[in-house]
Specification:
alpha/beta; binds 6-O-phosphono-alpha-D-glucopyranose; 25 strands; single chain; 647 residues; six-stranded mixed sheet; eight-stranded antiparallel sheet
Length: 647
């Protein structure tokens, strides 16, 4: 059962420790389905608030969208269509959109193809109730059969329509209130959900509930907001109540917020303050969120290290480590679990922790880890890395690790997210909302936190020399200026991108700390340009991939100074000898690789272990410009979603 949780929202960025150090028993058993939900009840026109909220939630899915509004005279109208939120806006032109209460949804299809009928909200059979749903009702088949036997028919192939009809059925047969019907219906449901329900004739009340899918209620003055993500409604309020698993929120404009459990006990209303600026959610003059987020990196690194490195002494402090010093000092092994870009950052974390802390590290895809009966011991530390803090596989890996008794540390961006709340301790990366689906500033923030983590733990364990500790922490302090410097390559990278826009394949090579950077560079290109790209450790080329090399196969080679520089230079020669085109990322002034490469991108050089942060910038830009020249939807690439809450 849900326990309330302690959380520090770190609104004072100048406080010395801005990490999390909590443990609670709340974590999702199973997360399914992405989708974004939003709701409003108050005095204002609901529709514009809902549409704006949907735009901000589009990262959660963008294959169909819809709204349900209750007019002041009690009429319940549902408008929905296939496509993005902008398509819904066109569809709404000229419609009757009056009302100060409504719910809205943006979908990433799981049950049923993306079409108008499967879009949310779903009406109940009588059209007296409308529901939006993020999640999967696992026993929907049984429930549907029972409803069909009672005369219900269905317009869509979704599990969500089953739920709205179940609520209607309970209400009709027992004559109870809507909140009670929702409660009784949900007691019959197996699965994951965040739902919101409105009904004809009641323009004061939304009933919402959650099990394993994120949901937050924003509390205003005589008005309430509901969302899958607090950031989408941050311009209206700073006061939020996180709805817990197995809880039902009764959101009534004329009454204080009420939350009951599925067992019908009152739950505590715990209002949290969250401060984010609207400008963090807007494009701020950039053509795409991704470009804005790439350019934000000097500032996001400042936010990430603020209060954690003492500029006078170079001392690194993470409260999430200090509070659990003995666990870190005595750890026998660290296992990073993550997906996607966060997994690439974790591979860099492996190098950092092994070399600075001398603790053996494993890096696991969360999706593999959770299903292969891994050996987890009580003196292991599992580090869950997730930008969103909602990724289903990573959350499940956290749950598994906790059950096995390991200490679980989170590295998350989204404050108050499920993974942040489910871990024993952790550190936020504090890079602000990342809206572009392709992760950029979160990656550099994650690596920055991992470097600080390694230094903090390494010092406690006595495995790092004073000189190296000071060198790396000083480099971290100067990282924002270094990021400003490296961003100056943008015009040159944009020119290069023009040359390579029509390539069908790319290879990315790197070694050591920059092997994961190569993987991440390739992933960026794949995600947003749809060009096939592979990352390899440079020396592995000759064990197979070199067969692919010809004039049509460009290679991006990372050849910045490190102890394998000469070897990478030789790998570049091998490719050159086979007619391959080379784009090399090199240190400023490097003449050796410049001579063999067809094109070079020069970057400033800092401590070797931090070079992935610097090198990733031109790779982000290369992917970005190629995608732009190919006319791709950079911020919302096909088939992807920002927050993957499906297995
Ligand atoms: C999705 C996103 C990726 C992200 C991955 C892990 O696939 O499109 O950009 O790296 O999920 O997300 P997380 O929020 O756990 O870091």
């Amino acid at each position: 059962m849900f326990k309330s949780f302690e959380w520090s929202y770190h609104t004072d960025r100048h406080q010395y420790y801005n990490d999390f150090s909590t443990r609670n028993d709340l974590y999702a058993k199973k997360q399914n389905n992405m989708c974004g939900i939003v709701g409003y009840v108050g005095r204002r026109d609901a529709c514009p608030i809902l549409i704006k909220g949907l735009h901000r939630l589009e990262y959660r899915g963008y294959d169909s969208a819809g709204v349900a509004l209750v007019n002041p005279d009690g009429r319940l109208n549902v408008f929905k269509c296939k496509g993005k939120v902008s398509d819904l806006e066109h569809f709404l032109d000229g419609k009757d959109l009056g009302g100060n209460i409504g719910i809205a949804h943006t979908r990433w299809a799981t049950h049923g193809v993306p079409n108008d009928a499967n879009a949310h909200p779903h009406y109940s059979e009588s059209e007296n109730i409308a529901l939006i749903h993020n999640g999967i009702i696992e026993n929907y088949r049984v429930l549907k059969d029972a409803l069909e036997q009672n005369g219900y028919t269905f317009r869509s192939s979704t599990d969500s329509e089953v739920l709205v009809n179940l609520i209607e059925y309970v209400r009709a047969t027992s004559g109870c209130s809507l909140p009670e019907a929702v409660r009784q219906a949900l007691r019959q449901v197996i699965g994951a959900y965040a739902i919101a329900v409105v009904e004809k004739g009641n323009h004061d009340r939304i009933v919402a509930a959650r099990q394993s899918s994120p949901m937050v209620v924003g509390v205003g003055d005589g008005e309430f907001f509901l969302s899958s993500d607090a950031a989408s409604i941050i311009e209206y309020t700073e006061d939020f109540v996180y709805v817990g698993d197995g809880e039902i929120a009764v959101i009534d404009r004329n009454a204080p917020l009420k939350i009951v459990t599925l067992d019908n006990h009152d739950a505590k209303i715990d209002i949290k303050k969250l401060q984010l600026s609207i400008s963090q959610l807007e494009k701020g003059g950039y053509p795409h969120f991704m470009l804005k987020e790439i350019y934000e990196q000097p500032r996001t690194i400042v936010d990430c290290i603020r209060g954690r490195i003492n500029p006078d002494t170079c001392e690194v402090k993470l409260s999430g480590v200090i509070d659990h010093r003995d666990r870190f000092v005595n750890a026998r092994r660290i296992i990073f679990v993550a997906c996607g870009t966060s997994w690439h950052a974790s591979l860099i974390g492996e190098h950092l922790v092994e070399s600075i802390c001398r603790i053996p590290v494993e890096v696991e895809y969360a999706s593999e880890f959770r299903y292969r009966n891994p050996i987890i011991r009580e003196d292991d530390i599992v580090v869950a890395v997730s930008q969103s803090g909602e990724t289903a596989d990573t959350l499940a890996a956290v749950e598994l690790a906790r059950k096995a008794g390991a200490f679980v540390f989170g590295i998350c961006n989204v404050v108050g997210s499920s993974i942040a709340r489910a871990t024993d301790s952790g550190a936020y990366i504090h890079v602000g909302p990342e809206i572009g689906v392709a992760s950029t500033k979160a990656f550099t923030g994650q690596v920055t936190v991992m470097a600080m983590l390694a230094l903090a733990v390494g010092r406690e364990r006595g495995t790092v020399t004073e000189a190296y500790y000071n060198e790396v922490s000083a480099a971290l302090l100067h990282l924002p200026e270094t990021m400003e410097e490296v961003l100056k390559v943008a015009p040159q990278v944009a020119d290069l991108a023009k040359i390579f826009t029509y390539a069908h394949n790319f290879i990315y090579l790197g070694r050591g700390y920059n092997y994961p950077t190569a993987l991440e560079g390739a992933l960026k290109l794949k995600e947003i340009s749809y060009i096939h790209a592979e990352g390899y450790p440079a020396a592995e080329m000759k064990h197979g991939p070199i067969a692919l090399i010809d004039a049509e196969m460009p290679t991006v080679a990372i050849a910045t100074p490190d102890h394998t520089y000469e070897k990478t230079a030789s790998n570049i020669e091998e490719i050159k000898a086979r007619g391959g085109k080379i784009i090399a990322v090199i240190a400023r002034g490097d003449e050796q690789v410049r001579r063999s490469a067809d094109f070079v991108i020069e970057v400033p050089v800092i401590a070797e272990c931090l070079m992935p942060i610097v090198v990733s910038v031109p790779l982000q830009l290369l992917a970005y410009y190629i995608a732009v020249y190919k006319g791709r939807n950079v911020d919302q690439p096909r088939n992807l979603a920002k927050s993957v809450t499906v297995e």
